[in-house]
Amino acid sequence: MKIEFTKMNGIGNDFIILNGIEHELPDDISDFARKVCNRHFGIGADGVLLILPSDIFDIRMRIINSDGTFAQMCGNGIRCFAAYVYEKGLVNKEDMKVETDAGMIRPRLIFAGDAVEKVEVDMGVPRLDPTAIPVSVGDQDVIGYPYMTDGGEIELSCVSMGNPHTVTFWKKLADAPFAELGPKLEEDAMFPEKTNVEFVEILGEKDIRVRVFERGCGETLACGTGACAAMVASVLNGYTGREVTVHLAGGDLACQWDENNHVIMTGPVSYVADGVYEYDL
Questions:
Q1: Does residue 281 register a pLDDT over 80?
Q2: pTM of the model
Q3: What beta strand segments (E) does 113-175 contain?
Q4: Among residues 104, 23, 29, 30, which one has the least CA distance to residue 60?
Q5: Range 147-154 contact pairs with CB under 8 angstroms and sequence separation of 24 or more
Q6: By the 8 A CB rule, do 21 and 53 touch?
Q7: In this structure, are residues 172 and 159 in contact, taking their beta carbons and an 8 Å threshold?
Q8: Active site residues
Q9: What average pLDDT does the segment 252-277 reach?
């Protein structure tokens, strides 16, 4: 089966985009995602974005992680998605409404000349209720929650930006036990749907540095929802103001928690390639 695709990235968080409105999609999309995202035997990506029709909004996006599992939302992914559907003529709006498994998300395109340079996304209201994240530690907001590791006690702050995030703070990011603690927290029984994990170093009132361990992917160069969750946790722990530049391995995102309690994320998008992938079950 020949599958037409586009590869894009948002500050290094890379995606295979499939146009399910104009082209046939594989029946077993999870198997396809595992194969096409493989960086040695496939094209290589952090996930697959599906473009689908919507009965209620302008268009629909679904996300499959590189391990074949579905994700509710992806901040870098929706920026790539919005730029793609506009430039391919699938949505003729610069401010659009996108149906996702996390609800309606509103990206707004920012141009340099005729090309989309950046996308601003209203990520909605951060969810702090443990049942909404979800995290099984009682009914209080999980901010500064004590958690025992082999190296001693640390504190966790949990936020949902349409998908679950767990934020930990470190004086120096280089000292964080990323390879051990990332998968340990992702799989911890306190997270019934697993969790994404952000390791955060506070650089100042308006700057944080973040390293990301994504649920279903492992380490990625960036995570848009993770950047937003890290900013929200930084505010709630008293470390920063409500406008923060989030420095990730792949680049920077601007995040703002506005007066309406919505988180606004802005960042660039880049095209990598168009092509045809030979997919066999």
A1: no
A2: 0.93
A3: 115-122, 145-149, 152-160, 164-169
A4: 104
A5: 147/185, 149/177, 149/181, 149/184, 150/180, 151/177
A6: yes
A7: no
A8: 74, 223
A9: 97
